[in-house]
Design brief:
- This protein is an alpha+beta fold.
- It has one domain.
- The protein is built from 1 helix and 3 strands.
- Strands 1-2-3 form a 3-stranded antiparallel β-sheet, with no helix packed on it.
- Strand 2 and strand 3 form a beta hairpin.
- The model has no long low-confidence stretch (mean pLDDT 90).
Length: 53
């Protein structure tokens, strides 16, 4: 089963990024994550993210 996702977090340098990805469980011990895009979030996306933290 493929699941998609939208995640926001910090990269290694501490910058906030927005990542769009798919997630596919291969078996009980492994999965495949495919990064579709990664970008800096818009101002409104940043504000929404910071309110959740």
């Amino acid at each position: 089963m493929n699941l998609g996702g939208l995640r926001m977090g910090k990269d290694a340098r501490g910058l906030t990024i927005l990542v769009v990805h798919t997630y596919e469980r291969l078996d009980d011990e492994s999965a495949r994550v495919r990064i579709i895009s990664a970008r800096r979030p818009t101002r409104s996306e940043m504000l929404a993210y910071e309110e959740q933290q």
